Amino acid sequence: MQHDNPAVQIVSDFLDASMAPDPVKAATYMSADVRITFTGGRLMPSAKEITAFNAARYNWVKKALGQFDWTDRGDHTVVYSNGTLYGEWPDGRSFSGNRYLDRFEVRDGKITRMDVWNDSAEWILAPEVAKA
């Protein structure tokens, strides 16, 4: 999808590559010193580790992208992506409607920070909440 804001386009292209999954292409949208913090406060050194983490948590997972919101901070742009996750748990059960929110900082055409939140941990710990 084409976006008018260049930072939003970078994030959108990164998410597309991440969902392929193509961690090599996804990494091209990130700065060499990117700071990635995943659910539970897990620090990820690169897009490659994101793919490995997701492969251990899900048989497969994709994002149904919602809206993008952004704000200019002078030296960088903050981009928020929200929507839902859908896919399959390791035991073969499918899921959908799993809320996510990702926050990105984009500087000089590269993602320099990424923070990830979603409902997966809650759904794993208490599967009945996923049916609510």
UniProtKB/TrEMBL annotation:
<feature type="domain" description="SnoaL-like">
    <location>
        <begin position="11"/>
        <end position="114"/>
    </location>
</feature>
<dbReference type="InterPro" id="IPR032710">
    <property type="entry name" value="NTF2-like_dom_sf"/>
</dbReference>
<dbReference type="Pfam" id="PF12680">
    <property type="entry name" value="SnoaL_2"/>
</dbReference>
<dbReference type="InterPro" id="IPR037401">
    <property type="entry name" value="SnoaL-like"/>
</dbReference>
<protein>
    <submittedName>
        <fullName>SnoaL-like domain-containing protein</fullName>
    </submittedName>
</protein>
